[in-house]
Amino acid sequence: MATALVPGSFDPVTNGHLDVIERVARFFDRVIVAVIRNPQKAASLFTLEEREAMLAEVTGHLGNVQIEFFAGLLVDFARIHGADTIVKGLRAVTDFDYELQMAQMNQSLSGIDTFFLATSPQYSFLSSSLVREVARYGGDVSSLVPPVVAARLDQRFKEGPPA
Fold first, then answer.
1. Is residue 161 part of a domain?
2. Is the pLDDT of residue 163 over 90?
3. Which 3 state secondary structure label does DSSP give 4?
4. pLDDT tens-place string over residues 2-24
5. Catalytic (active site) residue 61
6. Looking at beta carbons, which pairs linking 54-59 to residues 24 or more positions away fall under 8 Å?
7. Could you tell me the residue range of the domain that residue 98 belongs to?
8. Which of 63, 104, 127, 132 has the largest CB neighbor count within 10 A?
9. Of 79, 91, 120, 124, which is the active-site residue?
10. Is residue 157 in some structural domain?
11. Is 143 one of the catalytic residues?
């Protein structure tokens, strides 16, 4: 059984993320969406549990996808969960440079290969940080994220980010 690991912070999950997850789910028996807290990024807008819940809701139609969160090395998480492959969506050349280095390090540490999947053209500009910025200032993000995520963003910016 081929298992793919799709890691990311998903803060929040975007239509671009969902597109990649759906496409990966067509090619692998099992897909683990691994939600991480990226220490290189600013404080998260949503908790790990909130991100996990939103991902579970928007991927519920995919019977071979499970949502997990983790800390530590991605390759250790992959080994524990029997993942054969890491899959990363690439938006632009700038993503490739960083992701190639990560893929080579992960392969060196564990022998696990990384597959790169080009994002669909309509999502090539889309990032969670851009969505957060637009939503923070009251912009319409309904075409950028699933409806449940748009509602959560609206609610979050009305009540303020978690403490």
1. no
2. no
3. strand
4. 999 999 999 999 999 999 999 99
5. no
6. 54/10, 54/12, 54/13, 54/146, 54/148, 54/149, 54/152, 55/10, 55/13, 57/146, 57/148, 58/13, 58/18, 58/146, 58/148, 58/149, 59/18, 59/21, 59/22, 59/33
7. 3-127
8. 132
9. 91
10. no
11. no
Here the CATH number for the domain that contains residue 79 is 3.40.50.620
Whether 141 is covered by a domain: the verdict is no
Name the catalytic one among 9, 17, 44, 152: 17
Question: Is position 109 within any domain?
Answer: yes
Q: How many structural domains does the chain have?
A: 1
Of residues 34 and 44, the one with the higher pLDDT is 34
Residue at token pair 């090395």: 73
Q: Are 89 and 16 in contact (CB under 8 A)?
A: yes
Question: Are 126 and 14 within 8 A, CB to CB?
Answer: yes
pLDDT in tens, 85-116: 999 999 888 888 889 999 999 999 999 999 99
Higher pLDDT residue, 42 or 70?
A: 70
